[in-house]
Design goal:
Blueprint (H helix, E strand, L loop, with lengths): L4 E4 L7 H8 L1 E4 L8 H8 L4 E4 L7 H6 L5 E4 L9 H6 L4 E2 L6 H17 L1 H9 L20 E5 L3 H12 L3 E5 L5 H7 L2 E2 L2 H7 L2 E4 L13 H4 L7 E4 L8 H10 L4 E4 L19 E3 L8 H19 L15
Parallel strand pairs: 1-2, 1-3, 3-4, 4-5, 6-7, 6-9, 7-8, 9-10, 10-11, 11-12
Helix pairs in contact: 1-12, 5-7
Bound molecules: (2R)-2,3-dihydroxypropanoic acid.
């Protein structure tokens, strides 16, 4: 039997693709940008396996164009780019890469929090600009992190990892989650609250929700109006968890006072996106998991998932276990 045909939608860091190449007939999209839709459809036509990124839309139309497809592996924890029910209906297991990126993403969320609180980006620009003439009592004053209240929306692995960091910084911790987290309550003093309390009491609000039909626009105009006027919003989850036009208006009004975003809706934002012109915004290009080690681990797990699915073994991390026949 000849090795299965697979299509990988981008070059990946580390050497994981060498393992895939050894056991499959692998084609890799060499472009720096994702394959355009037509190219994705045509390359999928004969593929038995696809290794995708969060920038590739895998929907019913793609599945239809790929009659031989029997394994899908997404190099991301999130699977909101994939129509999971359509894959399940076709019996296609979908691998994803949670947990290997937990600590790295939590580091980045906390980096955004600290940078926003202490105005690091502005400080750097100021210090290089020639405007730094002396020590000034009221220069670039920021907000204290210690003693402030951090609200965490979504206490999955990343939310909990952010909570551990915040406890080390002496922050008061509130969280809202579908399930209680007695361990974090006992060890870190975290307190479960309803969404309203989370919005009203947080000095910093960090979003760690997967994007689903229920969490889309979790934060809209009505929710932002309940936040403190001094609050800082941090989003390292998915852009569409926040209603972006509402966020633009809210930031213009100064409630929340500041937003530090690693994600937007869409990505990248268009050149005329009003968000980009707001002074009370810090924006990163979706870098939460972007450390050398973590991206190599994600690539390796994505390959493990794909090979397992192609070889009929249980996937290390499967987003739709019910697809297994
Ligand atoms: C994910 O994995 O879902 C992140 O957004 C990218 O690392």
């Amino acid at each position: 039997m000849s090795p299965p045909r697979v299509f990988v939608t981008r070059k990946l860091p580390g050497d994981a693709l060498e393992r895939l190449r050894a056991r499959t007939r692998m084609e890799v999209w060499e472009g720096e940008l994702p394959p355009p839709r037509e190219a994705l459809l045509s390359r999928s036509r004969e593929a038995e396996g696809l290794l995708t990124l969060l920038t590739d839309r895998v929907d019913a139309a793609l599945l239809e164009a790929a009659p031989s497809l029997r394994a899908l592996s997404n190099m991301a924890a999130g699977v909101d780019n994939i129509d999971l029910s359509a894959c399940t209906a076709r019996g296609i297991p979908v691998g994803h890469t949670p947990f290997v990126l937990t600590e790295t993403t939590a580091d980045f969320a906390f980096a955004l929090l600290l940078a926003a609180a202490r105005r690091i980006v502005e400080a750097d620009a100021f210090a290089r600009s020639g405007r730094w003439r002396t020590w000034q009592p009221a220069l670039l004053l920021g907000r204290d992190v210690h003693g402030a209240t951090l609200g965490i929306a979504g206490m999955g692995a990343i939310g909990r990892a952010v909570a551990r960091r915040a406890a080390g910084f002496g922050m008061r911790l509130l969280y809202s989650s579908r399930s209680p987290h007695p361990e974090e309550e006992a060890a870190l003093g975290a307190m479960a609250v309803d969404k309203r309390t989370l919005l009203r009491e947080s000095d910093f609000l960090s979003l760690h929700l997967p994007l689903t039909a229920e969490t889309r626009h979790y934060l809209g105009a009505a929710e932002m109006a309940q936040m403190k006027p001094t609050a800082v919003l941090i989003n390292t989850s998915r852009g569409a968890v926040v209603d972006q036009p509402a966020l633009v208006e809210a930031l213009r009004r100064g409630r929340p006072a500041f937003a530090a975003l690693d994600v937007t809706d869409p990505e990248p934002p268009s050149a005329d996106e009003p968000l980009l012109r707001l002074p009370n915004l810090l924006l990163a290009p979706h870098l939460g998991s972007a450390s050398y080690a973590t991206r190599a681990r994600m690539a390796s797990l994505a390959v493990d998932n794909l090979l397992a699915a192609l070889e009929g073994r249980p996937l290390p991390h499967c987003a739709n276990p019910q697809a297994a026949r």
